[in-house]
UniProtKB/TrEMBL annotation:
Name of the protein: Glycoside hydrolase family 1 protein
SUPFAM superfamilies per UniProt: (Trans)glycosidases
Organism in which the protein naturally occurs: Velocimicrobium porci
PANTHER family on file: 6-PHOSPHO-BETA-GLUCOSIDASE ASCB-RELATED (PTHR10353:SF122), GLYCOSYL HYDROLASE (PTHR10353)
Lineage: superkingdom: Bacteria
GO molecular function annotation: beta-glucosidase activity
Entry annotation: catalytic residues: E363 (nucleophile)
Keyword hit for Cell inner membrane: no
InterPro entries linked to this entry: GH (IPR017853), GH_1_N_CS (IPR033132), Glyco_hydro_1 (IPR001360), Glyco_hydro_1_AS (IPR018120)
Family label: Belongs to the glycosyl hydrolase 1 family.
Pfam families in the cross-refs: Glyco_hydro_1 (PF00232)
One cellular component (GO) term of this entry: cytosol
Amino acid sequence: MYKFPEGFLWGGAVAANQCEGAYREDGKGLSIQDVMPKGIRGKRTESPTEDNMKLVGIDFYHRYKEDIKLFAEMGFKVFRTSIAWSRIFPNGDEKEPNEKGLAFYDDLFDECHKYGMEPLVTISHYETPLYLAEHYNGWVNREMIGFYERYVRTIFTRYKNKVKYWLTFNEINSVLHAPFMSGGINTPKENLSEQDLYQAVHHELVASALATKIGHEINPEAKIGCMILSMPTYPLTPSPDDMIEVMKEEHMNYFFGDVHVRGRYPGYMKRYFKEHNIKIHFEPEDEEILKNTVDFVSFSYYMSCCATADKEKQKKGNGNLLGGVKNPTLKESAWGWQIDPKGLRYVLNMFYDRYQKPLFIVENGLGAVDTLIVDENGNKTVEDDYRIQYLNDHLVQVGEALLDGVEIMGYTTWGCIDLVSASTAELKKRYGFIYVDRNDDGSGTLERYRKKSFYWYKDVISSNGKTLKIDLERQGSLKE
């Protein structure tokens, strides 16, 4: 058995734009998600269209009390969600916030505390106000720092006694791969220069550090972290050239963590900028602002990938945003995401060795097609043993990382209740412990049903990880 630390923050994660719905209710403005009906790889529309599943989501906006009660039944210690920026500032550049939007999150956080559940709040989770994208070109424009600062001051002040754990940006490194979704950058990706892209990155990094500074000033007890899309990269062959390719790929992701934790730009990025004729414009105060470093490092983990210097083998797989060359030794999910539990232990060790900061796994899960059935007691459920196996195998590797000496704060599974996929905008790609009766054609009752994994996770939490199944050979070595 693995010894998870006392106070380990077990829980689950969602994002406002994928679950709340109510996209124009109570003064909310449009976000970039409202014009992305087919997800990341689809074309954006000029205005919201009926085929966008996110406009209704799973109606969490009206059903959050019911859902949080279910999370509490599983024993959640923490619930990760995001604030929809355009609920607080509908266009993003207003001087005064929308009170009804603020009140909704007051009620949501109160409901969490009612069950002894800590909110873990992502400030910006792929939902930049659409107005800021269309009128300012998102984070390419330095004015975004001021708009973001007003937003974070508002929510840090409002919720200082309700929210202890904050994340500044979701998967901040994803802006390199999905500039519109991640950075609200309206310039089409194919027309976006590296100069503008990395200037946008700089603006986000400054804004993130500024948020950390402001958050600590308003509430010195707050714990503020960065959030990175992690995808460990292995060499496709033992060739030294492939290993150098791995180093270059990993630098592109480590860059974001390095700035958040060390407070300055690393030398390898300065070399990259020089060789690609990129000149990052710093305002006089930027260097000092970046020194406001995070309290912890959080990340998503779904899969690993390979890298090679052989151009003929560089075709990327389907995978998450970062893609990557397929690993021939791994199986994959129905959506082409390669399954690699041991990669989670690896990335935990790599981050901890590099940063010596507490780590928080804030996304991990399996997207799969679930079949709703009626069990022997007449209850509707899902026999999702495949999800149980996936999560069990990953949590076993978290246990291994703990034995390695890695400091881990907690673990929140992605999509703890079924929600609309960010990558494909589908509902049939389900992650949750709770089945939501809604289909990709918009049909369904929106009723909630506990899956088999619901009870499995409840047991994992109540036992603090003692019910995880370890392979027999490994179990023997642990006893020794």
